[in-house]
Amino acid sequence: MNQDSKRVALITGSTGGIGTALCRKLSEEGYRVVGNFRNQQKAQQLQAELAADGHDIELAHGDVADFEAVGAMVRDVEEHIGPIDILINNAGITRDTSFVKMSKADWDAVLNTNLNSVFNCTRHVINGMVERRYGRIINISSINAQKGQYGQTNYSTAKAGMHGFTKSLALEVARYGITVNTISPGYIATDMVMAVPENIREKIVAQIPVGRLGGPVEIAEAVAFLISDKSGFITGSNFAINGGQHMS
After folding, report:
1. Pick the CATH number of 3-241 from 3.50.50.60, 3.30.70.1150, 3.40.50.720, 3.10.20.740
2. Which member of 31, 134, 155, 187 is catalytic?
């Protein structure tokens, strides 16, 4: 496929476990992948790792919690790489503590990075998608948005807000050939989860009916389907990928 004919996919939070899997899978599928990052060293490591496997991805620096910074990033990507037809809002952080101990800074940091970023990034790409009458937007939420989690009122609130955003925006842009969907992963075997002490991980796995953690590639496979031309009739949906740990 000619580079100029490839659809451009912007992935926020590209240097994490799920982000890396998304970059790899979408490159395999023939998209022109742009990985958003804040940490230069991690981004360069990601780029080198994927290049060693034959995947050339672009990098785009920008704080997704900063509306103006996102605007500058999107303009730069569209000027030098191409119009963004696919947006995957994957960036996220945690600042876990019980609500009675939670600081305003902990609340703001998580809401800004996990939820306001979805507005910031989507707002800067949506007009172009409407004009071209095509777009795919995927919001990576969490099982804890659906069931709640002790110590995560900030995180669960932000991740639940993502799906409310998905449903309303899906209604507004469906007639323009744009689909908007949410994926809510359960416990995935990322570096962060694997760093949890083994005895704690065993307790987590014991709560998962399929008897194991999920793999980042399983999230990436679902995303790849939802952004394909085969999925044009799917919009406003939430895909729970959690091994049966929570069903609703």
Report:
1. 3.40.50.720
2. 155
